[in-house]
Design goal:
The chain has 4 helices and 2 strands, in the order αααββα. With 66 residues, it is mainly alpha-helical.
Length: 66
Protein backbone atom coordinates (compact mmCIF):
# COMPACT_ATOMS: atom_id res chain seq x y z
CA UNK A 1 0.00 0.00 0.00
CA UNK A 2 1.34 3.44 -0.87
CA UNK A 3 2.07 6.21 1.61
CA UNK A 4 -0.81 8.19 0.13
CA UNK A 5 -3.29 5.38 0.76
CA UNK A 6 -1.99 4.91 4.30
CA UNK A 7 -2.24 8.64 4.95
CA UNK A 8 -5.82 8.80 3.69
CA UNK A 9 -6.75 6.06 6.20
CA UNK A 10 -5.63 8.19 9.15
CA UNK A 11 -8.67 9.44 11.08
CA UNK A 12 -7.26 11.70 13.82
CA UNK A 13 -4.53 14.26 14.26
CA UNK A 14 -3.10 12.18 17.12
CA UNK A 15 -2.66 9.18 14.83
CA UNK A 16 -1.05 11.40 12.19
CA UNK A 17 1.27 12.87 14.80
CA UNK A 18 2.46 9.41 15.90
CA UNK A 19 3.11 8.39 12.28
CA UNK A 20 4.37 11.75 11.02
CA UNK A 21 7.74 10.38 9.87
CA UNK A 22 6.04 7.85 7.58
CA UNK A 23 4.29 10.64 5.70
CA UNK A 24 7.23 13.02 5.40
CA UNK A 25 7.64 12.51 1.64
CA UNK A 26 4.02 12.98 0.60
CA UNK A 27 3.32 15.47 -2.16
CA UNK A 28 1.32 18.16 -0.35
CA UNK A 29 0.49 19.76 -3.70
CA UNK A 30 -1.86 16.82 -4.35
CA UNK A 31 -5.35 18.24 -3.62
CA UNK A 32 -6.59 14.97 -2.10
CA UNK A 33 -3.67 14.86 0.36
CA UNK A 34 -3.94 18.55 1.16
CA UNK A 35 -7.69 18.36 1.87
CA UNK A 36 -7.28 15.32 4.12
CA UNK A 37 -4.37 16.97 5.92
CA UNK A 38 -6.53 20.04 6.64
CA UNK A 39 -9.36 17.83 7.94
CA UNK A 40 -7.05 16.21 10.51
CA UNK A 41 -6.24 19.40 12.39
CA UNK A 42 -8.51 20.29 15.32
CA UNK A 43 -10.95 23.10 14.60
CA UNK A 44 -11.56 26.02 16.90
CA UNK A 45 -14.97 27.60 17.38
CA UNK A 46 -13.57 31.01 16.61
CA UNK A 47 -10.48 31.33 14.47
CA UNK A 48 -9.03 33.72 11.96
CA UNK A 49 -7.93 37.32 12.03
CA UNK A 50 -9.33 40.29 13.93
CA UNK A 51 -7.64 43.68 13.67
CA UNK A 52 -4.50 42.00 12.29
CA UNK A 53 -4.19 39.59 15.24
CA UNK A 54 -4.59 35.81 14.98
CA UNK A 55 -7.56 35.04 17.23
CA UNK A 56 -6.25 31.62 18.37
CA UNK A 57 -3.06 33.18 19.72
CA UNK A 58 -4.66 35.96 21.75
CA UNK A 59 -8.03 35.98 23.48
CA UNK A 60 -8.52 39.64 22.67
CA UNK A 61 -6.91 41.98 20.19
CA UNK A 62 -4.00 44.23 21.12
CA UNK A 63 -6.21 47.33 20.78
CA UNK A 64 -8.60 45.97 23.40
CA UNK A 65 -5.74 45.19 25.83
CA UNK A 66 -4.23 48.69 25.69
Amino acid sequence: MSNKEEFLKVKTYEEYDRRRDEFRNLDVRDPEILNHFNELFPKLEKSGWEDGVIVEAYKESRKKRE
